[in-house]
Amino acid sequence: MIQILIDIVFLIWLSLLTFYVFKTRILYFKKIKARKNVKVKRYIVFEMVPSTFSQSDLENAIRSAVKDLGGKVWLEISNPRVILVYQNYGIISATRAGYKIVIASLPLVKNINGKEVLLIPRRTTGSLKKAKRLIGIR
Question: How many CB atoms lie within 10 A of CB 102?
């Protein structure tokens, strides 16, 4: 008997709450459209001290540093690629979700091909054109 009474009170309470929510329109039902074929990248401009290296050597060193810091999961999420090397500067392409771990792992690159190197992140931009402009390429 008591259980039936509790169930009825609970049902009335839920129906009143439902009526209140629909009356005041607290919940907004909005259809979210999935944008496909949208490549959202971040471009990290960095400086190499003291000398320059090839793109493939830099990319291998950066990818191993990201893997050491965040593991294979964050390496796949961030997907760092060296886009350009110009004098002592370079540009890394990374995803929007994982660009911070790439920035955090740049100081972990201590040597490349037996030569000591220091990679200093300078600026993060949203377009490759602006990144090229920052390092002096027009």
Answer: 28
Q: Which two tokens stand for residue 120?
A: 């200093």
Q: 1 pLDDT exceeds 60?
A: yes
d(CA 85, CA 47): 10
Q: CA end-to-end span of the chain, whole Å?
A: 82
Question: Strand, coil or helix: what is 38?
Answer: coil
Residue 21 burial (CB count, 10 A): 11
- Cα-Cα-Cα-Cα dihedral sign, residues 56, 120, 99, 70: positive
121-to-16, 18, 34, 99 alpha-carbon distances in Å: 57, 53, 33, 11
Share of the chain above pLDDT 70, in %: 89
pLDDT digits (tens, 9 = 90+) for 77-92: 899 999 999 888 999 9
β-bridge partners, 121: 46
Residue 112 has pLDDT above 70, yes or no: yes
Q: CA dihedral defined by 55, 60, 61, 62, rounded to 10 degrees?
A: 80
